């Protein structure tokens, strides 16, 4: 038994000796090299170059491009895939393949590094983002800090956002390609929100079709906002938790909304000056059983179920909101479905 352990120890020591006896430099008798450039053929420094096992994806060596975009990474002879990653997140990851690189592992090339030789692979990196920049001002061209600048898609979903600095300027990076509108609002509810180039509705706003690398200047001037207020009742009783929907008067586009409070009152602040109409909707009508809900109306007294939306919009009253002013919608009585 003792002899068995002695032999086992000798074998283990021999394996360890072989393992540590191979100089590290001897494993790197080849290299991968090349140049990483942008779409304008200008070299990009600081790009991480990962040499990965061709099948398992394990990083076996890595390096960084020099200021002129060149790189050289020593590796042992073998089969690899080469990945290029921008730590600054300006450029999308790229893999070696084709004439200037490919975007995915699946499409990438298996790069063969010969013994004592070099595999040369040049890659063109593509930017991930387009950008908006500009200045947000108030009346008298006063720069506004702390304004929220949003890029919104066709559904109104915010795909990117930022805030203005002390001098009213902003820079907003947007994942590209994209088709978006620029919307500016005041979280402090002093200035009225607008789409670029200074309009209330997205229907009137500018749609920007962006590709990666685009740089667009979009300045917007915000007006001091105004308010709408009103009351909701059922018979003589105040009705709370009703949706007060604010629509732009000429287009009927939904702008914003609020819920009535326990006293039946509602107030919407920071509206851009303009003409608006107000609709009142019982949430039960939308998400519950319309048969037991209060009937939706446009102020004053335009029953959507009877008149239809188009006729009700035409017959309803527009309310003018002015800068710093409060437009009183008055009291609207809602009735049940029966």
Structure commentary:
By secondary structure, the chain is mainly beta. The chain folds into three domains: 29-124, Immunoglobulin-like; 129-221, Immunoglobulin-like, CATH 2.60.40.10; 226-333, Immunoglobulins (Immunoglobulin-like). Helix content is 11%, strand content 42%. It has helices at 2-21, 283-287, 304-307, 309-315; strands at 30-37, 48-53, 59-64, 70-75, 78-85, 94-95, 111-113, 118-120, 123-124, 129-137, 148-152, 158-163, 169-175, 178-185, 194-195, 208-210, 215-217, 220-221, 226-234, 237-238, 243-248, 254-259, 265-271, 274-281, 297-298, 302-303, 319-321, 326-333. The longest helix has 20 residues, at 2-21. The protein is elongated. The relative contact order is 0.10.
Secondary-structure map with pairings?
Layout: H1 2-21, E1 30-37, E2 48-53, E3 59-64, E4 70-75, E5 78-85, E6 94-95, E7 111-113, E8 118-120, E9 123-124, E10 129-137, E11 148-152, E12 158-163, E13 169-175, E14 178-185, E15 194-195, E16 208-210, E17 215-217, E18 220-221, E19 226-234, E20 237-238, E21 243-248, E22 254-259, E23 265-271, E24 274-281, H2 283-287, E25 297-298, E26 302-303, H3 304-307, H4 309-315, E27 319-321, E28 326-333
Parallel strand pairs: 1-8, 1-9, 10-17, 10-18, 19-28
Antiparallel strand pairs: 1-4, 2-3, 2-5, 5-6, 5-7, 10-13, 11-12, 11-14, 14-15, 14-16, 19-20, 19-23, 21-22, 21-24, 24-25, 24-27, 25-26
